[in-house]
């Protein structure tokens, strides 16, 4: 099982995000998966797979060409951590505002707890501020 845990998040980012395969969400995540650090459109925590699917559809609509590169992956027992780089173009309105057609790049780190071959809990830490700054939705950070 530890070997399978070591590859689950790599498979998650490749199949769920890069290949846009929604069925992989059900294969790789438990129905009651909690995604700490991700919020739905109402600012509520994502604490079930059906809520994650709504988040995923909105993000995929906003960035249909999204590609997530897993830069590093480490596993220890039932936990795995990955450091990723996201590249995409904002061509859809899935986030609730018009497409800017701007290219974006941001990074993030995810720690996941895996049980019975599925993700049951994840701690997401993404540079969403940097993402929104690249889209021109927030002022640039003062230097």
UniProtKB/TrEMBL annotation:
<dbReference type="InterPro" id="IPR009959">
    <property type="entry name" value="Cyclase_SnoaL-like"/>
</dbReference>
<dbReference type="Pfam" id="PF07366">
    <property type="entry name" value="SnoaL"/>
</dbReference>
<protein>
    <recommendedName>
        <fullName>Ester cyclase</fullName>
    </recommendedName>
</protein>
<dbReference type="InterPro" id="IPR032710">
    <property type="entry name" value="NTF2-like_dom_sf"/>
</dbReference>
<dbReference type="GO" id="GO:0030638">
    <property type="term" value="P:polyketide metabolic process"/>
</dbReference>
